[in-house]
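User: Hey, my collaborator sent me this sequence without any context and asked if I could get a structure. I don't really work with proteins. Can you help?
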Amino acid sequence: MTLPLLAAAAFLAAGCASLKKAFPHKSKSSPAAAAARPAAPARRVDPKAQEAAYEEGMRLFSDEKYAEAKAAWKKSLQMDPDSQIGRKSRENLRKVETILDSLRDIKAQ
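Assistant: No problem. I've predicted the 3D structure and written it out in structure-token form, which is a compact way to encode the shape of the chain:
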């Protein structure tokens, strides 16, 4: 390295060190960070209500009422997106959105 590059590297290293001192990195997974975050309120989802919304979407889909099925699956997904029914709702939403897009394209022609 040439002298100007060495000087620039030293300057950057010193700057980085002072920045690290001024703004220490706090890991989100550290116990202190976890204690500082408020606990998320426990979700109280009625699994039967979520299943009912999902099944309503299935019934509407089989009746070719795609927009209504989409709304029912959105409701089911919002209740508990991480449950098995929530994942199935998300998958069905993708499929019904593809169908609705195709129908819009057909109508536009």
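In plain terms: Residues 32 and 38 are 12 Å apart (CA to CA). You can pass these tokens on to your collaborator as they are.
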